[in-house]
């Protein structure tokens, strides 16, 4: 067969179904994002660039020979060894940090957390108060009123007896 012959449309090449494209299973945003990344003139958003630069910087060790900074030279003069902590007993891994993604000020997250805990305590107290039955509360209040009335009567009796015997308070 030469190149000028038409393709045989009955061959297995045309009978097999092509594999489904993975782009159909992706959402519109994912397909758009993939298309943008393939575009050479596409500029990444600032947040993504910052994340990339941060990850690159955090992955790079600063105590290597190729990174010979004045600070590292001073540390080596004072006895610092690569892979050991300061004073040969300090931390060897960097302190973990959490990057703020929200627009709240510093400390507002803990403030919101405290307010939420206080509100939760109020709700729990209210639920406990409502948990006691209404009849029990009314019975307790009536009992307290009766005891106060009996106390007043007893005080009046004691006062009249004292005045009969000539005792003044």
TrEMBL record:
**Where does the G-patch domain start and stop, copy by copy?**
67-111
Stretches for region Disordered: 1-75
Question: Could you tell me the superkingdom of the organism this chain comes from?
Answer: Eukaryota
One short Pfam family name for this protein?
A: G-patch
Q: What would you give as a GO molecular function for this chain, any one?
A: nucleic acid binding
Under the heading InterPro entries, the entry gives: G_patch_dom, GPATCH11
- Stretches of Basic and acidic residues bias are at 45-64
> PROSITE patterns in the record, alphabetically?
G_PATCH
Record's GO cellular component terms: kinetochore
The protein, known as: G-patch domain-containing protein
Q: What is the native source organism of this protein?
A: Rhizophagus irregularis (strain DAOM 197198w) (Glomus intraradices)
């Amino acid at each position: 067969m030469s190149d000028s012959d038409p393709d045989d449309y009955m061959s297995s090449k045309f009978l097999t179904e092509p594999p489904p494209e993975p782009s159909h299973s992706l959402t519109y945003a994912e397909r758009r994002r993939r298309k943008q990344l393939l575009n050479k003139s596409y500029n990444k958003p600032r947040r993504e660039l910052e994340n990339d630069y941060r990850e690159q910087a955090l992955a790079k060790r600063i105590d290597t020979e190729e990174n010979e900074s004045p600070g590292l030279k001073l540390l080596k003069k004072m006895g610092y060894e690569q892979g050991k902590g300061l004073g040969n007993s300090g931390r060897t891994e960097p302190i973990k940090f959490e990057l703020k993604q929200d627009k709240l000020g510093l400390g507002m997250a803990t403030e919101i957390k405290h307010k939420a805990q206080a509100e939760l305590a109020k709700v729990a107290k209210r639920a406990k108060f409502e948990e006691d039955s209404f009849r029990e509360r009314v019975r307790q209040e009536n009992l307290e009123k009766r005891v106060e009335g009996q106390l007043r009567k007893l005080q009046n009796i004691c006062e009249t007896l004292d005045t009969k015997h000539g005792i003044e308070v």
